[in-house]
Amino acid sequence: MFRKIVIGFTVLLLLLVVALAVFLSGGPEFPANSDSIIAEAIQSDPPELVHGATGYASSNTGSGDIKIWYEVNQPPKQVLTKLKGAKPKATVLLIMGAGSSSMLWPPDFIRAFTNAGYQVIRFDNRGTGMSDWVKNWQKDKPYSLEDMAADALAVLDAVGVKRAHIIGTSMGGMIGQRLAISHGDRVLSLVSMSTSGYMLDPELASLSKDFSIDMIRLILKYGITGSETGQVKMWLGLIGMMVNDGLQEKDVRDVSDLVLYEMRKRRGFNPDAMAQHFAAMKVSGSRLEELKTIKSPALVIHGTADAVLNIAHAKKYARLIPGAQTLWLKGAGHIIRDKHMPRMMDAILKLFESSSR
């Protein structure tokens, strides 16, 4: 009898190992020479990704002071000299999505604004990057998007900015919406990208099961060890799932440099950030009715092939914001590619100009 139990347990264990191996073999595909590109990046020092003036803002939302790291990027001197008074036209505040630090904002995206004469501020949401990681977080008492909006206001206050153009992507778009709803006097305009007015809207599609399974697969396959190679591949896989049109060699090197910069020159990645941010989105509920009260000029941008938040979310909430403009980018995923940059920047800069008249 004991021998039969041992044999049965061994067979079951082997089946589980085989099933796990099959499960881990799936997921996003990397370019053929990704391993050599990653190895080369690991053997090098990552390029500097912070070029502006940095500082910390203090945000107090009732649970003690939270230190929020920020960076301020100024227009080039030759641009400033062309502007009356040699001052930036206005300030742009960038708010990143869940689980990611402000380093995920593409340098070319930031430069497009500074070259157009705008001061650009980006900051690490609480729980990410160089901002405070919330150690005393409680699942039954999570912080909210309103708390995270207060972090954004604390950054503006620290830099001495009364009003700013707000650009938020994914969860950052939700924070931007909250700013425009509750603190409209601080918002020159709102650009709401790849996001929703209510992530858990029962009338709309939620995160697909395939996407969720792929996320679990990536974490199990690459994220557990904490090694540089593992972290690079995990983030490469996550980004590959969100760009929709496959990864290129340049993506492999760019993501490698980004991940290595976070791990070697900053604080690395907070494993609790994603869960805390999802809890913040959940506890904050729907903004759909409140969106009707927004008075700031607004632009809603969304990719037609977004696998994280279906474009139906954007089409629903965009109709609720008075006078909101829309830009639907054909074939774009949750992360919007450089090839869409000209159309996107044209629409954003036109919104900025019209809101300053």
Give structural notes.
The protein is α/β, with parallel strands linked by helices and 357 residues long. The chain has a single domain, classed as Alpha/Beta hydrolase fold, catalytic domain (Rossmann fold, 3-Layer(aba) Sandwich). 44% of the residues lie in helices and 14% in strands. The protein has twelve helices and eight strands. An eight-stranded mixed β-sheet has the order 1-2-4-3-5-6-7-8, sandwiched between helices. α7 (209-223) packs antiparallel against α8. The model is unreliable at 9-25 (pLDDT under 50).
Keywords:
357 residues, Rossmann fold, globular
Give me a quick take on this structure.
The chain is α/β, with parallel strands linked by helices and 357 residues long. The chain is built from 12 helices and 8 strands.
